[in-house]
Every structure is written in structure tokens, then in C-alpha cells.
Description:
- This protein has 261 residues and is of the alpha+beta class.
- The chain has two domains: 8-56, no CATH class; 62-256, MucB/RseB, C-terminal domain (Phosphorylase Kinase, domain 1).
- The chain is built from nine helices and seven strands, in the order αααααααβαββββββα.
- It has a seven-stranded antiparallel beta sheet with strand order 1-2-3-4-7-6-5, with helices on both faces.
- The protein is globular.
Amino acid sequence: MTxxxxxxxxxxxxxxxxxxxxxxRELEAHIAACPACAEVWAEMRALRAALADPGLRPKAPAxxxxxxxxxxxxxxxxxxxxxxxxxxxxxxRRWGGAGVGLAVAASLLLMVAxxxxxxxxxxxxxxxxxxxxxxxxxxxxxxSDHHTVKPWFAGKLDYSPPALELAAAGFPLQxxxxxxxxxxxxxxxxxxxxxxVLNLYVWxxxxxxxxxxxxxDGYILMHWRTGGMTYWAVSDVGExxxxxxxxxxxxxxxxxNPSKP
Length: 261
């Protein structure tokens, strides 16, 4: 079965989260009423899920990770790894005296060292993001009014998440919903950047002061802490846009709670 000729390209746009909110809702309503498009839509989502199987991606050996950590000075070189011929004692000389080598090593480390030991939480976050993009799963409280979003969570969570309007920075608030991550109910705040949806998961906890990034299944994850909360942002925007989002949100949180790190 094939999709309606005028909807085929739009289905791909919806799958990649490239449609604006109005067109996305219109297409979701069409899918609900059109068996042909519904079948094609289900096949597209099933294919994406199959391609996201971790078993399809080769895993870097532990020895490579150890070598990278040693080369950037994070740990002492393992005794089982022989020194490279001509290697000097200075790490600057080892990398040719240039910061480019360090940047390359750090980027390689990012690929072989996920945030968690087994990546389970990161997998939950990406799955939650993808699930939210399906019809009727994105918002429980659909409003850009942060004075409405924040009180909505009262009584539903044992903490009060900051619901901040970041439209001035290019990330307008869309609303929020309840989700379940890391074994507990959590707040999910939804922002947009152009045609892209950004899910921000928030709960009390620790984390890095500066945002950490990871690319997983075609999505960027960003993790950091501020104001006594741990933040996980997931989207398909670029790393630069994610960093701009983290900066804007951290500044807004600090303005509200200047005493909390």
C-alpha cells in the first residue's frame, strides 16, 4: 500500500520532525483517518526503530578507550600498552604542540564513553523523545504560558520544575507533560527551535556544571546541572543550538535562584 501522493513527502518530514506544529497536527489527523497513510506511517516508524538497534553499531574496544584517555592525560597509560616509537615525555609534543590533537582525542572519547556505564538512561531519554513526537504524546499541558505550566506539575511531582520562557533566545516554550525516567516520574518541558522539538527532562540531582554532549541514534543529548536540578535535553538540532539553549536556560534559572549552583 502506498501513501496519498500529496502526503508522501510530508510523512518523511513528520518522521524527521521537520514540520511546524500546525502542519504536524494536520498530518496526524489525516493519518488517523486514512488507512493507506497510516500503514505507510507505521512501516516508516518500524524501520527507524529497527535501524536504531544498538546491535547494528560496532562497539569500540576497551583498549582504544584506554589509549585515548591516556593520550589526553585523563589516566596513566595502561601497562599493557607499549609506548609508541618516538613518543616524548611531554603530552604537548605527543600531540604536535597543537590543540587540534586534543580535540580529536576528545571527540573520539565521546564516541566510546557514554554518559552512563551501559547507556540505559540515555536510551530511555531518546525513546521518550521519539515517543513524544507520535500523535497526542507531546503535551499534557499545551501552553506557552510558564505561569500555567509550572503550577500544573504541583501535586503530580515531589519537586517543582522550573518552567521558563526562552522565546527571546529562540526557544519558545510549548508546554509540558509527565514522563517516567530513571525509575521515577519526571517533568518534561517542551520547547521549539524553528521546526524542531526539544524535550527537556528535569528532576532533582547532580550532574556536570558544563553541558556534556552525546550523539545517539541521530539525536543530540545534553546533560548538565544548575539550580539544584539535573537537566537532560534531547533534540535533533545541532550541538551549537543545544549549547545556546543550555546557556539561555542556565542564565534564566540563575536569575531566579542566584544562591543555588
